Amino acid sequence: YTEAWDADKKSIHVMPDTPTILLAKANAANVSHKLYVQAWEDAKKKGYDMRADAIPIRSAKASRDIASDYKYKETHEKQKGHYIGCRTAQEDPKLAWAARAMSLQNDRIYRKAYHDSKAQIHIPVDAMSVQAAKECQTLVSDVDYRHYLHQWTCLPDQNDVIHARKAYDLQSDNVYKSDLEWLRGIGWLTEGSVDVVKAKKAQEILNERLYRTRPEEIKFTSITDSPDVVQAKINALQLSDV
């Protein structure tokens, strides 16, 4: 049964110009890496010819010369020791300007004029600023501020002396608190004071025992012939299992 099928499989032939075969070949050509780099490989086999005076070569050389540190400093190195027109460093404008800038920046030279002239100042003694400073010193001086008064001699029965003594007694702390000296050492019980009585009254108001009466303490006697009691008895007899 399968012998004929196996023989047919070997004899099947597909035409090479069918659309499916053409599409498969095109896809194989698109995904082939060898065909993708074939043009580049052919160009490499042909070689190349680049002259020394080509524009890319000359541009690369110019960029290299500009970026070179040696070429950058070559002109400066050639000009060293060949300055013409100035016999000394003082005659050179650039060197003179540099020396002037250095002298301005030097702190010692900057303060030299001040140190030379600070000990040669002469101020007249009657100048306004000196007089004002003396008056200010007199005002803020502690020695001149405290002038102790001399001892006055007054009669003890003068009215102003008597009035001053009364004023001193009123202002004296010892005299002010002399009426409290007899209270020292005296004991005092708080019982009966206003605060204690007030606390007791507040405790009585907040006392639960005095505020409420418990139900078990109330004497109560139920009435046996009241309607609700009679109805409860009838219900109990009706619900009794006996």
UniProtKB/TrEMBL annotation:
Matching PROSITE patterns: NEBULIN
Species: Podargus strigoides (Tawny frogmouth)
Name the record gives this protein: NEBU protein
Gene name, Swiss-Prot/TrEMBL: Neb_6
Repeat among keywords: yes
A GO CC term assigned to this protein in UniProt: Z disc
Keyword Transferase found: no
One Pfam family cited in the UniProt record for this chain: Nebulin
Keyword terms, alphabetized: Actin-binding, Repeat
InterPro entries with a match to the protein in the record: NEBU/NEBL (IPR055297), Nebulin-like (IPR013998), Nebulin_repeat (IPR000900)
GO molecular function: actin filament binding
GO terms (BP aspect): cardiac muscle thin filament assembly
